[in-house]
Amino acid sequence: MLLAGLVILWCLVWGQVTPLSVLTGVVLAVVISTLFYLPAIDLSGRVNPWYVLVFFVRLIVDIARASIEVAWLVIDPRYKPSSAVIAIPLDTRSDLIMMLTAEAISLVPGSIVVDVDRQESVLYVHVINVHDDQDLAEFREEVFATEKRLVMAIGSKDDVWRVRQPNHLTRSNTGGAA
Amino acid sequence: MTGDGIREIITITLVMVAALMSCAAGIGLFRFPDVLSRLHAATKPQILGLMCACAAVAVNTPRVATFLLMTAIIIFQGLTAPITAHMVARAAYRSNHLRRDLLIRDELADRVERIERSEESSTSPKQS
User: N or C, where is chain B less crowded by C-beta within 10 Å?
Assistant: First the structure.
């Protein structure tokens, strides 16, 4: 699986599929995957193509919107720096979903994951341009929405059940205590 | 207008957007107050810039090979840029390269302190 992916990537980078490029790709893929052994990922085995599409479209829209926001902040002379580091307890128990959520919110401008608590599934996120608790609450909602979209796309049944719970928001309201 | 003309205009627009975004990233590096905020400026607007630049190339030379290569570039940038930002942010936070007076809330401080204290208590017996 990983091997095939690496070979395809190699051909992509060369921009051509010839016997030579495939052969060098296979050789390199074998060398790489023996030298840099990675533990297998726990896939949930569930993929919902519709929600995957929703996730990517929403991600690109978010990136575009937030990029413009940050770019504007940069040149806005009235901008008064004010940021926060907040703990965001996620509902998922899957490393992969947690990683992808962290990637997604890091990719969207305005937020960087500073630290992660893997056991507790808590992300510590630095947010820019927040001025009061209202802003923080809105940001939390956004992260939960991102997590929910990801779980709906590739999460396990357990996780789907968890993000669909109405008490989903209580965990954020208690600031991670629950 | 011919198809080529329209394509040129789209390419130019995309390249301009990409340039503006990279420019904003550069200015942000100067204007933002601490490492964490600067990371926002340094790593983020460029993602959109890069997407636009790649889209411009893809529009200008619409071949399957270019399109796939651009997709690969965007995916890898998208996967690696947040990791870089995270590693730098983490290091910056732990080495106190940030302006705490500008933070309206800091929920990580307690935890770092707690962990450091437990590390100290676990290592100190060995030292003595």
Answer: C
ipTM > 0.85 for the complex: no
C-alpha to C-alpha distance for B65 and B122, rounded to whole angstroms? 56
Rounded CA gap, B43 and A171, in Å?
30
Pairwise CB contact (< 8 Å): B107 & A85: yes
Q: Do B107 and A75 touch (CB under 8 A)?
A: no
What is the count of structural domains for chain A? 2
pLDDT by 10s per residue, chain A, length 178: 677 777 877 777 776 777 888 888 888 888 888 887 777 666 666 778 888 888 888 888 888 888 888 888 877 777 777 778 888 888 777 778 888 888 888 877 678 888 887 777 788 888 887 777 787 888 888 888 888 888 888 777 777 777 776 655 545 444 444 3
Q: Which of B13, B29, B34, B44 best tests the A interface by mutation, with the highest count of A CBs <10 A?
A: B44
A125 & A147 share domain:
yes
Integer Cα distance of B1 and B108 in angstroms? 57
Q: Where are the domains of chain B?
A: 3-99
- The minimum CA-CA distance between B100 and chain A, rounded to whole Å, is 9
Residues A62 and A29 in one domain: no
Range of the domain at A6: 2-35
The answer as to whether A105 is a domain residue is yes
